[in-house]
Amino acid sequence: xxxxxxxxxxxxxxxxxxxxxxxxxxxxxxxxxxxxxxxxxxxxxxxxxxxxxxxxxxxxxxxxxxxxxxxxxxxxxxxxxxxxxxxxxxxxxxxxxxxxxxxxxxxxxxxxx
Length: 113
Known about the structure:
- This protein has 113 residues and is mainly α.
- 65% of the residues lie in helices and 0% in strands.
- It is built from 2 helices and no strands.
- It has helices at residues 31-72, 80-110.
- Helix 1 (31-72) crosses helix 2 (80-110).
- It is elongated and about 65 Å long.
- The protein starts with 30 loop residues before the first helix and ends with a helix.
């Protein structure tokens, strides 16, 4: 199973005064607390990513069921109007990036023809 990575830009080398694992400035007055916060938040992000992956897999399964039902009744595999409403809802919430994300979700949910 692959690990989800949302980083799109290559990582810039950190200044040697920064902890390479956390990005916290070494020797800062609050370095210990900052490292603890970074690690705790990263653990929470990893958990959220795992849950998102499971939700996306469930969404894909449900989308496949909808497609089967439509096709079995002689309907189309894809309903563009429905897809546009989905894209619009993500765009309203997250802007252009939401629009792109929704299109990727829809593509994942289509599966193989």
